[in-house]
Amino acid sequence: MERQNAPGDRDQLDAVIKALYEVISFDEGGEPDWERMRTLFSPHARITRVTPEGTDYLDVAGFQDLAKEIIDLGTYTRFFEIEVLRDERRFGGLAHVLSAYETRQSRSAREPFARGVNSLQLIREQGEWKVLSLFWDEERTDNPLALPALFDRGEVRWPS
Amino acid sequence: MAKLTRERKNKTVYRVVGESQAQGLIFNRSASGNGPSCVVDDRVLRNFGSCSYMGLERHPALLAGAAAALESYGSQFSFSRAYLDSPLYQGLEEALEQITGRATLVAPSTTLAHLAALPVLVSDDDVVLIDQFAHASLHMATDLLKGTIVERIRHNRMDLLEERINAYSKPGRRIWYLCDGVYSMLGDFADFAALRELLGRYPQLHVYADDAHAVSWTGKHGRGAALSHLGDSERVVVALSLNKAFSAAGGALALPSPGALTQIRRCGGPMLFSGPIQPPMLGAAVASAQLHLDGVFSSLQAELEERMTAAEDALARLNVPVATADRTPIFMVQFESLRAAQRAVRELRQRDYYCCLSTFPAVPMDKPSLRFTVSRHNSVAEITDFVAQLADVIAVRGDTQASAYAS
Asked: SS3 for B368?
């Protein structure tokens, strides 16, 4: 697979991934940055949420409705997710990214309460990278997450 | 619109609760009654988990009341109260009216009190705003309010409450705010000062408070926190528990008028169709109510106050972070992960202390916690020792990332 390393292009893709983690994180009493979240996705984007209880196949608006309901129910009162490892492949106007994450209660928390992997497909639309598909699964006892072996065939990048 | 189905919610709860059950930290069976200690898995553990804050369950007056009622009226009185009342009800309700200073209706439980009262009190066109951390039984009761707008408000956010009052106000419409007097998990109070102020400014605002965890240990005659702060308002309804610090059984509604009582008595489903509190526990409840009214009850409250102070002092001295500075017998230490909370509870059990693990759905996913309570059963020395053990357990030691934090 051809790797493209055009100056600026990689930075822009990196900025989208970083922004994705920023917009879903929120402090106590807050909520995700819904508006900025929308700007990161293609209008054709799909979000697929895998949980042990079932899978949700959503568009961005559907995901936001679901997230709002979860926050409204008090299931989460704050949320902070960071990227810990990334495998990134690009060809022309497409990019595939596997992004391992840790979910913590706050920026200062020392211990994650969940880990998992986001699978992202990005598309270059009108010169900008946009998320076309976000799809993730969480680490569980029967689904252990071993880093960095998970990405041993990819271009592994530790986030700066 | 994507929605969480009931089935999905149940599956998530089943999984999360099951994880802690598999660890042996919840759904335990006691081999003893409640008191200074409890026996779990053949270990005698000092008890820092009970909601019997006043520790009255073996008080001679309550034991005698229960025994006398059992002897006089048998093990049960199997009638709906709509047909025939046990002779003990009248004495209990009269005593509770003296305690609360209000028309008081006894219900089989606090949950059933909510289920009876809310569909009667709340009209179709009213709006219900409910604190997101209000007791599960209150949220459950709102499911009966078909056709009424029900909206959750972030915990104790009086600014958001006022915003929603303004958004929903229209002539003739009442706006109900449902909250706990003392929140059973966090151990904090409702923001009574702000509620009083809002009640003063918004005549359409009505408050319904579940004060189950504040009964007995606080307020004149143990009337609780909500009645102590808001009891003079005709737009406030308070639900009480006779099950926790009161050491008997059942619940009660302290109502602003005899008319409201009659309405709920006649129309509230569980008041017509549910069974009553049975005679032995009614006997204990009458005895407990009389104890609350006798002149020395405040000295029993002072004994608990002394123990709460001991816990607060030890927590502060040892830098153990708790979720709230509000003065109640409920203390919550929050952890960064469920694993860390489980480790702390497990380690304390190995040190012969019983306290509770609080996980979703009792608390948010992001607030797995160790919840402990103090009661008159705990000596000051025991409390000091317990907090020292707790501080030791949550200290960062090698691979034990305890990760306790302050909110």
From this structure: coil
